[in-house]
Backbone:
């Protein structure tokens, strides 16, 4: 099943993310290598959030991802939500 993970970022995310970015990207890369995370990217103009596309049997691996994400741990993510996504074409 596909899921979308939405992050809402603090206003100054670009300035504050540097100390945590490598660990954040490594966490995402590991999920990608396991086949759980298909795509991820920041929203632009303005950079105020991100969208992750997961393919998992349930939301538990995504919830674990969020709990371990340094952006969440250090307050760069102000809110997050997981939504099941019914893919009609592709995927």
Residues:
């Amino acid at each position: 099943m596909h899921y979308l993970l939405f992050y809402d970022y603090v206003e100054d995310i670009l300035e504050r993310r540097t100390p945590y970015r490598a660990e954040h990207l490594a966490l995402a890369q590991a999920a990608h290598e396991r086949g759980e995370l298909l795509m991820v990217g920041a929203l632009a103009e303005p950079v105020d959030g991100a969208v992750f596309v997961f393919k998992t049997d349930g939301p538990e691996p995504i919830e674990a991802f969020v709990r371990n994400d340094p952006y969440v741990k250090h307050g760069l993510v102000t809110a997050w939500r997981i939504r099941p996504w019914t893919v009609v074409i592709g995927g």
